[in-house]
Amino acid sequence: MPDMTGGVAAALSPLIRRIVAPNPGLMTGPGTNTYLVGIDEVAVIDPGPDAPSHIEAIVGASMRERVRWILVTHHHIDHAAGVQRLKEATGAEIVAFGPPKSAGADWAPDRKAKDGDVIEGTEWGLEVLHTPGHASDHLCFFLEEERVLFTGDTVLSGSTTVINPPDGDMAADLQSLERLRKRRLSRLCPGHGDVLDDPKAILSEYVAHRMERENQILEILSAGPSKITDLVSKIYVDVPEALHDMAGRSVLAHLQKLKAEGRVSGRDVNSAWKVA
Ligand SMILES: [Zn+2]
User: Which of 66, 46, 63, 42 is nearest to 54 (CA)?
Assistant: First the structure.
């Protein structure tokens, strides 16, 4: 069993440590993963929720002046809410693509990251990849020395990630996954759950899963117009009721992608959708 105990720094490789945040739940699995990259100069990937005990654990794992960068995969609160508290504790530079204006977040990056940037520590380099889909400001970070990809919520361990429009975008997500698939990667370090050892297979599974959903939706609609709630109850038979609202958001994301491609028509969550 993987050790996903919260609050302690677990070494995953010579350069990578992980601390699991105390926010386990339906959408967060064992809790958000905070990664520490480097020893002499440390980049923190995702401070996680604004939990004082968690921020203390992050600072306590290194000498505070060694924490030089706070990298944010995306603005969702389970990844980014602790950003200000960690900044105050360490003086580190906040590097992020977002947050998008619509999020109304109470923090801003010191440095706006863009695709292709490289954050350079003394012992390592982290390449920034802009991977919109789960969130418009989503970034993955590629650790060149170990060919490890920090995936945020673009890829999770144990489940596929929810695409919640309008900030979430299914077409963009598929493009991001295709792009990641082209890279030679050794391991994936996801935003939730344990390390994934077979990046090629996982990324292919993700794309296949999305295409299967899309086909299910098209199949049901070809039998007649359907509302999103009906699509969810037909497709997500094994998924607990409590998750049906989120499933509906992902179905909407699929429908919007198909609509942009001219394959279905419909308006919103309350209207009936049909094949075009
Ligand atoms: Zn998350």
Answer: 46
